[in-house]
Design a protein that fits this description.
With 258 residues, the chain is of the alpha/beta class. The protein contains 6 helices and 15 strands.
Length: 258
């Protein structure tokens, strides 16, 4: 059985109603979004990931952005309490999925709020964005769950984008990458590499030197290729209209110990 597992959730019928915070609303083509999602899932599977379909949450327009519902570290899953109240119905199906995969389950409780997209894992360090969707109580609760497991939790201010991982992700060697105008505190990362496009800040580590990234960041893809990485590009333009990126559309678990 493959050791790389990914939770995914199909885009629902109300996806065009998804929340937008830092961008102007533009029409979303639900049919095109479904086709782009299928291509995204196909790329994961083609690179050795076993995908698990999370139960739909069709009343929640943003439910396709499944990463926001949970944070996993080692064999423990922390079920998020989304900062947007309209998204809290998304978590039940994800809780069931991670439990079925053998994770020990914890929860963020009121008054804490935490979105999974605010948590960037680099080795045993968890960078947590403190901003519009994740509050101080949410950061404290994440610390309480994961620090006893050996995690180092570093809070990072987020003010100009929706989530921390809207601004930064990391390369396989641990170098944090980001589009500098949208990064509040690059100095908090031991190694930081600026990229030339906003969408170039988002990569999913497929394995080896392969990086899943958006087709809307060709200059960043060229930068990574020149550094010896192998960019794998997907068109996620319909999700980008809703402030989504390649990381948001799945929860990656490596052998249940993410």
């Amino acid at each position: 059985m493959p050791s790389k597992k990914a939770l995914v959730r199909r885009p629902g019928p109300r996806i065009a109603e998804g929340l937008v915070t830092h961008v102007e609303r533009t029409p979303v083509d639900a049919g095109q979004a479904a086709a782009q999602w299928q291509e995204y899932v196909g790329v994961l599977e083609a690179h050795g990931w076993e995908t698990f379909l999370v139960e739909p949450a069709d009343d929640c327009p943003d439910a396709v952005f499944v990463e926001d519902t949970v944070v996993a570290f080692r064999n423990v899953a922390l079920i998020a309490r989304p900062g947007a109240a309209s998204r809290r119905g998304e978590t039940a199906g994800v809780e069931e999925a991670v439990a079925r995969l053998g994770c020990s389950v914890n929860w963020v409780w009121e008054p804490g709020t935490l979105d999974g997209g605010d948590v960037l894992k680099v080795g045993d360090t968890l960078y947590v964005g403190r901003g519009g969707r994740t509050n101080a109580a949410g950061v404290q609760q994440l610390r309480a769950v994961f620090e006893p497991l050996g995690a180092r939790v570093v809070a990072v201010p987020v003010s100009t984008v929706l989530h921390l991982k809207s601004a930064v992700t990391a390369l396989p060697d641990g170098t944090v990458i980001g589009y500098e105008p949208l990064v509040d505190a690059a100095s908090l990362f031991p190694r930081f590499l600026p990229v030339p496009e906003e969408a170039g800040a988002h990569v999913v580590l497929l394995g080896g030197d392969r990086l899943l990234m958006a087709a809307s960041a060709p200059k960043s893809a060229e930068l990574f290729a020149n550094l010896g990485y192998d960019p794998v590009l997907v068109d996620i333009s319909e999700f980008e209209k809703l402030e989504g990126c390649v990381t948001c559309l799945s929860v990656r678990l490596r052998g249940l110990y993410a």
